[in-house]
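REVIEWER CHECKLIST
Item 1: Sequence provided? yes
Item 2: Single chain? yes
Item 3: Sequence as submitted:
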Amino acid sequence: MSGDSNQSDKTQCNGVKKHRSALPAVMISRNNVSMWSILKKCIGMELSKITMPVIFNEPLSFLQRLTEYMEHTYLIQKASASQDSVDRMKCVAAFAVSAVASQWERTGKPFNPLLGETYELVREDLGFRWMSEQVSHHPPVSAFHAEGIKNDFVFHGSIYPKLKFWGKSVEAEPRGIITLELPAHNEAYTWTNPTCCVHNIIMGQLWIEQYGNVEIINHTTGERCCLTFKPCGIFGKELHKVEGYILDKSKKKICALYGKWTECLYSVDPVTFDAHRKSDMKSSANRKGSTQSNNGHEEPDEMPPPEAETVQMIAGSDLIWRILPRPENSRKYYAFTSFALQLNELDGEMERVIPHTDCRLRPDIRALENGHIDVASAEKNRLEEKQRLARKNLSKSNEEWKIRWFEQGPNPHTRAADWIYTGGYWSRNYCGLPDIY
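Item 4: Structure as written out by the authors:
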């Protein structure tokens, strides 16, 4: 079924590309498919090894999903332009929070990238270019490298999403290091993302929460930002809440941050914040015994009511970031943001320059985007079988898979295991790439 096709046409307006505002077809309903029949044997297992029906996917590869970090690139650019290290940390913290904001209500699973799969995105209007590659199959590791078009930042990392099914929920722990470098200040920041959990997998309304501690370190100044993404709790008072502090190198609180990853982030004086927090804790002391979910074993069944959403602004606070509204047709299109709607666009000019390993050329993703569920399922099975056969033949030949754009090595700032971009992608020399589709 097609939908809003007249809105999805791309045109040139005053030399600037107009990006689409809809997908070629609306999302196919999952109401008649039982996930329990698939997952009942998988409790506690690593879900990356489980083959899921394509109906539970959204028409994006995980490599494309990662690119949604860049929706709020202006926060990095604002950080680079600031002359104050605390203000820079505020912007970087807001960028880290905004990076998970697109996951709100996104209950579809992105396609697992094939080994050797790549994705590029050039957005001159937003001031960046991005490329990524699937560098490992078991475990599945996605490496990425982005640069500011004005050379104002470098953003890179490698992500290994570990998925587990806990009976009522699926938990995604995004292992891996994220690094942001600001050359103008000779600064590097590193952090990891919080854990994401999708509730009511078997029955009821699906809903998402993020929880866990995120520590952002400025390796040049020694300043750090310690954020807590709070689990919802039974009464829903903590739903989507994130709060924490910016600390100087002696661990003294410089600034407090608070908000919701689905909505906004504020900064305020830490003394003011602590006084507000103390008052708030007293008023809710009768709820102190509530069981909170952070491991998927004890959790609220129902999504807390919408009135739990609004962030109460503390007097004297400054707004750092506010989420962009979703398009009106978002629910028809996998709850995509405007940015996500544009990630799988493909025109003739782009098709002539991208490598044949780019996600946009994956036939299963393209078929699902076009609403052809049976074709998407058949193509997904074909690609997975082709990947298994290629892996089998490679093992027989005693050859090693050659990663094209990254190499394994220590992160230059944390010394932890990472994948580092080796350069050369944008020279457009794509000879010798594998035939994966």
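Item 5: Key structural point noted by reviewer: DSSP finds ten helices and 20 strands in the chain.
Item 6: Recommendation: ____
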